[in-house]
Amino acid sequence: MSIHESQKPFSDNSFGQYEEEVQNILDPYKLLIVFKKSLIAMALIGVFTLMGVIVFIRYAKPVYESSSTIKLENNNRTNSLGLSNTGRLEEESSSLAGELEIIRSPIVREKVISDLQLNISYYVYGNILYEERFKTSPYVVSFVEDYSKVAYDTPLDIQIVDDETFQLEKKGFVENFTFGKVCKTPFGTFTLKKTAYFDDYNKKQKTFFKFNSPGALNNYFQQNLFADVANIEARTLYVSFKDHNAVKAYSIVKSIDSIYFEQTLQQKLKTFDQSIEFLNTSIKKAEENLIDAEKKFETFMRNNKTMDVMADYTKFSELRDENTIEIKDLQFKLELLKNLKGLIDANKDLEEFIPLLSKLEDEQLLNLVEGLNTLNQEKESLLLSQSESTYAYQKKKAAALKAKQDVLDLIKQNEQITQKQIHDLNLDKFEIESSILSFPAKETEMTRLKRHYNLYDKFYGLLMDKMVEQGLTKAGVTVNFIVLSPPTVENTPIYPKKGILLLSGVGIAILLSLLLVVVRFLMYDTITTLAELERSIPIPIIGSVPEYVADKMYFSQLIVDKKSKSAISESLRSIRTNLEFITSKKTSKVITVTSTVGGEGKTFVAVNLAAVIALTNQRVVVLDLDMRKPKIHLAFGAENHIGLSTILIEKNTMAESIQHSRIPDLDFITAGPTPPNPSELILLPTLDKLIEDLKLKYDVIIIDTPPVGIVTDGILLMSKSDVPLYIVRINYSKFFVAQEIKRTLNRGGYNKLRVIANAVPTNRGFRYNYGYYENESASKPKSWIKKIIEKI
Questions:
Q1: What digits encode the pLDDT tens for the residues 383-398?
Q2: SS3 state of residue 540
Q3: Alpha-carbon torsion 419, 423, 428, 429, what sign?
Q4: Side by side, which strands form the sheet with 723-729?
């Protein structure tokens, strides 16, 4: 055999089990039973749900909504002033989301609260609910000494006593006060003032007011205010407010519209105010910087004694060149003096040198040199005619020496003067060159100062221009605020919607009813049909006993001899026939009848099956071995003083304990007094001897055993039987009966175990048509309620 062939039976078996589970879950008859059992609960669910909806509609506080649609459009009037470009207002930069934030902002909220005086609320008590008196209260709080000392969000009950007096009650505090006078209370110091609605108000109605805290008002606006964009392209906003008072909702929306208009304009102008403030600060700072630059520039010119560094540089360059020339001229003059001195010291002829003396610009020296030169020539001429010792020559010589000395003194004097002049010129040259070297730094500093000055001057002029421009722009700003749909007082509440709530109530009732049916269907673990029983157990069903509905049966009874043509009698005869095919044993047969728990009808089946077998002229005896809860004596209407318990302890004999029924061949032995140890009695050999003795006298021995799901006595007795029968009651036995049967089979030795379905409904699951037999239910007419339920 291949692997696939060996796995195929297992797969088929698993699929069969899965198919059985699906069929058990989707059994329509089981669903119908659950539906029938849930009808009353479903009706109650519907009634209570609708009653709850009606009560809710009656006592729910109505919610009203007032709304408006507004359009924002910014215009610019600057061009109408005749100013183009300088005062032009740019398009509004803030998005519609920013406009919505203005509406929701604390600034608008606080102004609305202040405008409508929402910090104090006034109410009147009704029979169950209370109602707010917005703007229609018979009194108002006209004065509060200190808001920090009042009791916020605390209702203060007011009972009007007369036209001048009222009584305030709260937390054990009760005191009378006068309208218009200061009331000092533990909850604050305030004054109540009568309004125009006081005279028309019913003085017997109790009222209260409360101081609303900022947190409560904040939550109140956040929960009830709605603002959103209605149309982006059209720049329209939708604003609505919900409240239990229609007039209050209308007043709040109207106040929001007006405050939003004012706030929007202020927000637009605030930008220009900030710009102008910034410009004023900047102009002041620029003016200070400009004055500081002017002072620095002035200080620079004063310290450097110049207004134009480049002009001074040119001037000093020329001075330097002139100084250089003068120094060279003086150096040349000094050189001439040195040469002249050398010629004089060497007594050379000065005739040729004399023309150069004009450059010395010294007439005295020139005259002295010419005189010296003349004396020298005269002396030489005398020497030609006279000797050196002559008076005339000596006189000339003395005159020439004196003239020479005068010239040399004058030369020396000129040399000193010239050197002094050269020295002074060199000093001047050094100063000039030093000044020239400082000119680049001065020029850089002056350029920097000029640049700063020009920058501050230009920036100052620009700020002044911007100041004028912003002022003109601010004067040209206007905000067109168009209320496309103004708020109105809506007298139709948006909540509760009666129609929707009623439909919702019906839907909830249906949903809960279906949920109830589904939950009960899924949790319903009772075997409801014969088909369910067949699918859940691994052994055959040899027959089914119809449900007995003729009258109320408080305990098992013998009925087949009285109603021989009933469906129950015919079904038991069918079971009797099927038992003949299970065993072909010719000797006496032992049949045990058991069940899982009590109440499944094992005693009823045992007694009536014994009667049906006895009617075929077979001798039958019924043994009641359910000694914990004996019922055989009740079925036969006999006493239970002696029986099996006394036989097994050998207190009575079998003959003494056998009782006869009204059917000739049917006898029974009751359980007898309840022993303390039924299980130990069943294990005694006396029971086996009793059964053997009964086999000698009777053809069939039927034993009513204890339920196997409660005690083990039934299992022990089943081992002594030829045909063990297991009773399962439809619409009573649970699905765990199948597991109990399987456990019984697994213990071994019960190959002939068979199941009898008891109390099978006559309209479903019965194998044969017994319409020609007597109908048990015909003896008692059905009520009209049962007829309707059966039709359903």
A1: 777 777 777 778 877 8
A2: coil
A3: positive
A4: 541-546, 754-760, 723-729, 589-595, 700-704, 620-624, 666-669, 659-660
Which of 40, 72, 478, 438 has the alpha carbon at shortest distance from 237? 72
Q: Which stretch of DSSP H or E encloses residue 611?
A: helix 602-614
Burial 380-406 (b: 16+ CB within 10 A, else e): eebeeeeeeeeeebeebbebbeebbeb
Q: Are 408 and 344 in contact (CB under 8 A)?
A: yes
Task: Name the pLDDT band for 520 (thresholds 50, 70, 90).
Answer: confident
Question: How far is Cα 643 from Cα 653, in angstroms, rounded to an integer?
Answer: 9
pLDDT digits (tens, 9 = 90+) for 328-386: 888 888 888 888 788 777 777 777 777 777 777 777 777 877 787 787 777 777 777 77
Helical residues (DSSP H) of 105-235, grouped into ranges? 106-116, 214-224
Query: Looking at residues 66-84, what average pLDDT do you find?
Result: 62
Residue 6: CB partners within 8 Å, gap ≥ 6?
none
Question: What is Dmax (Cα atoms) for the chain?
Answer: 228
* Edge-to-edge strand list for the sheet holding 139-144: 139-144, 188-194, 182-185
DSSP annotation of 98: H
Structure-block tokens of residue 50:
């609708």
Q: Look at residues 525, 502, 489, 571 and name the one whose alpha carbon lies nearest to residue 762.
A: 571
Secondary structure E strands in 596-640: 620-624
Where do the DSSP E strands lie in 145-186?
A: 156-160, 165-170, 173-178, 182-185
CB 425 within 8 A of CB 326: yes
Question: Which has the closest alpha carbon to 736: 728, 725, 724?
Answer: 728
Q: What is the length of the chain? A: 792
Record the tokens describing residue 114, joined without a space.
Answer: 């202040």
Amino acid at 500: I
Beta strands 723-729; 666-669: pairing state:
unpaired
- Distance, in Å, from the CA atom of 718 to the CA atom of 278, rounded to the nearest integer, reads 109
- Strand arrangement of the beta sheet that strand 477-485 belongs to: 225-231, 236-243, 64-76, 477-485
Residues with Cβ within 8 Å of 180's Cβ and at least 6 positions away in sequence, in order, are 191, 192, 193, 194
Q: Beta strand pairing status for 477-485 and 64-76?
A: antiparallel
pTM over 0.70: no
Assign 3-class secondary structure to 305-342. CCCCHHHHHHHHHHHHHHHHHHHHHHHHHHHHHHHHHH
Q: Where do we find the tokens 């083990």?
A: 712
Alpha helices for 71-117 (secondary structure H): 96-104, 106-116
First to last CA, the chain: 55
Listed in sequence order, the residues at least 6 apart from 51 whose beta carbon sits closer than 8 Å to its beta carbon are none
Cα 38 to Cα 34, 84, 310, 518, 736, distances in angstroms: 6, 85, 116, 10, 23
Query: pLDDT tens for residues 719-767?
Result: 888 899 999 998 888 877 777 778 777 776 567 888 999 988 875 433 4
Alpha carbon distance 502, 53 (integer Å): 7
**146-175 burial code (b ≥16 CB/10 A, e <16):** eeeebbbeebbbbbbeeeeebebebeeeee
DSSP structure string for 422-467: HHHHHHHHHHHHHHHHHHHHHHHHHHHHHHHHHHHHHHHHHHHHHH
pLDDT at 4: 39
Tell me how far apart the alpha carbons of residues 733 and 726 are, in angstroms, rounded to a whole number.
12
Are the CB atoms for 115 and 259 separated by under 8 Å?
yes
3-state secondary structure (DSSP) of residue 638: coil
Residue with tokens 């600034």: 107
Asked whether the beta carbons of 407 and 345 are under 8 A apart, the reply is no
